Amino acid sequence: MNVLVAGGAGYIGCHVVRELKTAGHQVVVVDDLSKGHIAAVAAADLVIGDISDRRLIQRLVREQGIEAVVHLAADSLVGESMQDPGKYFRHNLGKGAEFLDALVESGVRRLVFSSSAAVYGEPVSTPISEDHPTQPTNVYGATKLMIEQMLAWYGRLKGLQWISLRYFNAAGADPGGDIGEDHFPETHLIPLLLATILGQREQLAVYGDDYPTPDGTCIRDYIHVTDLARAHLLALEQLAAGRPGGIFNLGNGQGFSVWAVIRAAEAVTGCRVPVAIAPRRPGDPAVLVASAERARQLLGWKPRYFRLEDIIATAWQWHRTHPDGYPGERRQQS
Known about the structure:
α1 crosses α7 (225-240). The chain is α/β, with parallel strands linked by helices. It has helices at 11-22, 54-64, 78-83, 85-105, 139-158, 189-197, 225-240, 258-269, 293-299, 308-321; strands at residues 2-6, 26-31, 45-48, 68-71, 110-116, 161-167, 169-171, 204-207, 219-220, 222-224, 246-250, 256-257, 275-278, 287-288. The protein folds into two domains: 2-171 and 223-250, NAD(P)-binding Rossmann-like Domain (Rossmann fold, 3-Layer(aba) Sandwich), CATH 3.40.50; 189-220 and 253-321, UDP-galactose 4-epimerase, domain 1 (Alpha-Beta Complex), CATH 3.90.25.10. The strands form four sheets. Strands 3-2-1-4-5-6-11 form a seven-stranded parallel sheet, sandwiched between helices. Helices cover 38% and strands 17% of the residues. The radius of gyration is 19 Å and the shape is globular.
């Protein structure tokens, strides 16, 4: 297929692009580079632009013969969403609606959406399945849930075939070591850990040690980014074959506390991590662990990276060989 990947120059996006191209699909990336990197998609056709630019999107669909879309473009910082909710409603929802309109008006009827476990909020039960109540505790999660609701309406009214992939915690890097996680500012635990080990940070902040968990720190389900990327390929194949769409969780089904991740990183790198306890971040649930049984059964998806140490090892390979991120984009950690 000819596939348009929105946000394809970002962390997860560039791994999705690689998976699609490896499978033989023709890929065009549209990205405003507010968070993405040109070097991450050097082997793909990159168009620098905004997903809310209807003329641009319609031109790309027409000229490139786009048959399907993967939509990963979004603002995604939980803390920022609680401090500046308007930005998240404008960018994630407003631009998302413009993007959907441009696609359906151009005749595109297949879309895979990058959603989040943040739609669930505080879990009522674990592991979390797709029919778990959705009660987001942060604005970022609320916008993801609202876009899913938009997709359902576009499906009913415009004939859009869609799949929403609810990620749990993406981690790791491509085993080849040439693409990986490079955010600024960085908020994800594993890259912050590795930056501390590399001496780019004085210490690691642990946000809250008084959660109702065995060691007091948050518990998360970590899924390797390459496993995530493969799920997008399978989702597109699902839609192309006319099989059912809908919502799918993506996770390992295992929960690891912040302290467990720290110990695993120390084991992988052979280095100790200096830690400072900080206040909880608003909107952070105590536990998020997935049930991905629906994806296994309907998409034929199965994670290849189960061990936390293996996930961290691929991230460590990327960070120690790219301590300043992608070439030509040196940044100071704060």
